[in-house]
Amino acid sequence: MKKQSAGILLYRQAEQGYEVLLAHPGGPFWATKDAGSWSMPKGELDKDEKPLEAAKREFQEEVGMPAPAGEYIHLGEAKQSSGKIVHAWACEADLNLEGFSSNMFEMEWPPKSGQTQEFPENDKIAWVPMPEAKRKVVKGQVSFLEALAEKLGQTLDEPTSHSPQISLF
Fold first, then answer.
1. Which residues contact 39 (CB under 8 A, 6 or more apart)?
2. CA distances from 44 to 10, 19, 25, 117 (A)
């Protein structure tokens, strides 16, 4: 059976439109990467675990706070370039990010040094406007942003920053 992950894409209404909560992966490989590297909080399903249950558990592990209560909207599934299947749900909620705390993982670092170091699974989280999120999120999760935007009647197009036209007539 192919590996499966599940995640939650929190969203909230902000002054400039909707924002989504994204997490930036920790560790030395991701330290200087931004565009195409962020993700919704997600992780692998345990054996016999239902995807939404896994998404809520992983949210707690990756953000350090329980998944908010609310209505969870299934955004579908997407096959990643690795072959893994990711299930996603959206939930409207505002979350104070001051309580952010990610679980840790160990890896050999520097490579081939024989030394093991510990890193946070996610080194930061942020509320990101949906058009910007499309640029920041890993390619395999763009379809979830598109599905959420459609449900919200929004667009993922970047706003244009041009001066308003003035008519002399």
1. 7, 22, 23, 25, 137, 138, 141
2. 18, 25, 15, 22
**CA distances (Å), 86 to each of 3, 91, 163, in order?**
9, 17, 41
Q: Tens digit of pLDDT for each residue in 34-43?
A: 787 899 999 9
Which residue from 133, 144, 127, 129 is spatially nearest to 21, judged by alpha carbons? 127
The C-alpha atoms of residue 17 and residue 167 are separated, in whole angstroms, by 28
AA letter at 78: A
First to last CA, the chain: 67
pLDDT band at residue 90 using 50, 70 and 90 as cut-offs: very high
What residues contact residue 105 under an 8 Å CB cut-off, 6+ apart? 26, 27, 118, 119, 120, 121
- 126 neighbors 120 (Cβ within 8 angstroms): no
